[in-house]
Amino acid sequence: MEMSEQFEKTARDIEERIRPQIDEAKKKVLDMNDSVVGYIKENPGKCLLGAIAAGYIIGRIARR
Amino acid sequence: MASSETAAPNGQRAESASGGAGELTVGQRFDRASDNAHEAWSRTRDTVNDIKERLDIDRRVARNPYGMMAAALGVGYVLGGGLFSPLTARLVGFGMRMGLRLAAIPFLENELRGLTESVINGGGESDSTEEAAGERKSHRARNNKGR
């Protein structure tokens, strides 16, 4: 019983220590996603042409 | 079509054509070319805007930005000749394998659930276990005949 309680406590400690970092990383990823989506919505033509060009280059490389 | 070239006052060569455009200096030609280029550019822009409006690209991108980017990437990939390449074959193979695995997981899950339920409900009472017992008996009988 003591072992399991100790495991539980250790797991809880680790979770408490890691949780803020995970939350922060999650917030950063969401912010980045928002900014990327905003940029794509503001410049759709540029982004589409860029994506086509990138795909073209990848296709050329893959064909070799 | 008689045409003659005369020297312009600023030293540039001017061309005169009978019954046509009159005299054109290099500067005038440059202006005309510039006008033509402007006209071509505005026409191209109009055409692009027209295509954009017809395909409703702005709204589509606003609705599904990542999907449109992926579609554009795919179009570029195909245009670049990557469709019939080893990379495509590998990607398709990986996708098929993943799809089959994902399809097989629910099937296996159902089978396992059925098995555990039959074990928990008590062996020997359910139809499936009776059938299994019958099969085992017939298998034993066949083995005994063989000996």
In a nutshell, what does this entry contain?
Chain A has 64 residues and is an all-alpha fold.
Description:
The complex is a heterodimer of chains A (64) and B (147). Chain A is elongated. Helices cover 95% and strands 0% of the residues of chain A. Chain A has helices at residues 2-42, 44-63. Chain A has two helices and no strands. In chain B, α2 (57-63) packs across α3. Chain B has 147 residues and is mainly alpha-helical. Chain B has helices spanning 26-55, 57-63, 65-79, 86-120, 127-146, and strands spanning 3-7, 13-17. Chain B has a domain at 56-145. Classes of the chains: A mainly alpha (64), B mainly alpha (147).
The general outline of chain B is: rod-shaped
Oligomeric assembly: heterodimer
User: How much beta of chain A, percentage-wise?
Assistant: under 5%
Total helical segments of chain A? 2
Overall SS class of chain A: mainly alpha
Radius of gyration of chain A equals 23 Å
How does the helix and strand content of chain B classify structurally? Answer: mainly alpha
Strand content of chain B: 5-15%
Task: Return residue spans of chain B where pLDDT drops below 50 for at least 5 consecutive residues.
Answer: 1-20
Q: What distance separates the N and C termini of chain B?
A: 114 Å
Helix-residue proportion of chain B: over 70%
**Order of helical and strand elements of chain B:** EEHHHHH
Shape of chain A: elongated
User: What composes the largest sheet of chain B?
Assistant: 2 strands, antiparallel
What is the strand tally of chain A? 0
